[in-house]
Amino acid sequence: xxxxxxxxxxxxxxxxxxxxxxxxxxxxxxxxxxxxxxxxxxxxxxxxxxxxxxxxxxxxxxxxxxxxxxxxxxxxxxxxxxxxxxxxxxxxxxxxxxxxxxxxxxxxxxxxxxxxxxxxxxxxxxxxxxxxxxxxxxxxxxxxxxxxxxxxxxxxxxxxxxxxxxxxxxxxxxxxxxxxxxxxxxxxxxxxxxxxxxxxxxxxxxxxxxxxxxxxxxxxxxxxxxxxxxxxxxxxxxxxxxxxxxxxxxxxxxxxxxxxxxxxxxxxxxxxxxxxxxxxxxxxxxxxxxxxxxxxxxxxxxxxxxxxxxxxxxxxxxxxxxxxxxxxxxxxxxxxxxxxxxxxxxxxxxxxxxxxxxxxxxxxx
Length: 365
What we know:
The chain is an all-beta fold. The protein has no helices and 34 strands.
C-alpha cells in the first residue's frame, strides 16, 4: 500500500511563469496550501487573490464593445457576434442569452484585458447559449478581480448552461489565471453563512489556461453534463479540469473531462478532477480521458465517489501517473474503473467496494 503524505507549505506566486497547481493566490497572512504525493507537489486554485505581484496598471480604460442586446423582460438577448475589451456585467436577476453568438475579448488600446469576459452584476444571474473566447491577449499576469476568466459568478447564485467557453488563455503563459468558468463566494474557510447555489450544466470547455471549471468557498454547485478538453498551456503551468475547493459543496456528475499533465521540469502535478478542502462532495458517473498526472485527487473528507471511469492515454509526463488518490478521510469509492495509469489507486485498495483496475491491453478509448 502506498502512503500519501499531506503537508502544508508556503508557496510563492509570481508573474514569471513559475508553475503551480492551483490558480488563485492566498492572502499574504495565510500560507498557500499545497500537498505532496510521493514527491509530486499539488497547489490547487486557492481561495483568495492577493499576496503576489500584480501587473502595474495605473491607467483605467473605459469599456469599448460592439456587443448589443435586445431586452425582453428578464432576458437580454445578444444581437450578434461581438468584441469587448472589458467585462460585460449581467444585471441582477437577468439572463444573458447568447442566441448562439460569440463574444470575443481583446486587449484595450494602450493596456491589456482585465478580469472576466462575463460576470454577474448582482445576486442572481444566468448565462446561456453563448460562445466566450479571447483573441491574442497580452501575456501579463494579474491578481484579484483582474485575473482572466471566461464566465465568473462572484457572490451570486444562478445558472451557467449550454455555453462554449474556449481558448481562455494568454498564449504560452504561466500566469495563474485563465479559468473558463469560475464560481466563488466568501468565506473560504468551510463555513456557510450565505451559501450561493449555481448550476453549471451542458457547457463545452476547451483550451483554458489554468482551470476548466472551479468552485471555491461558500458555494453549492451542480456541475453536470459538461464536456471539458485539456488546458492549452500544460508546458507552462499545472492545470486542473474541474476543482471544488476551500469549503465548496457540490455534485460533479455525468461530465466528460480530459486530463492535464504538468510538462515542466519541477515536481508539480496536474489533474482532471481535484477536490481540495471541500467536504461531502459527490463525484459520480464521470468519464476522465486524455493524459493526466492524476485522474481524480481527493483532499477532502466525507465524500462519495462512485461509478467513475478514469482512463489514461499517451506518454506519461515526468511528474507521476495516478488514477484515483484518496488523501482525505471518511471518503467512499465504489464501482469505479481505472486503466492506463502506472498507479491505479492510492491507497490500494481504496475505501469502498468493487473498484477495478484494467490492464493496459484492455484499456480502450
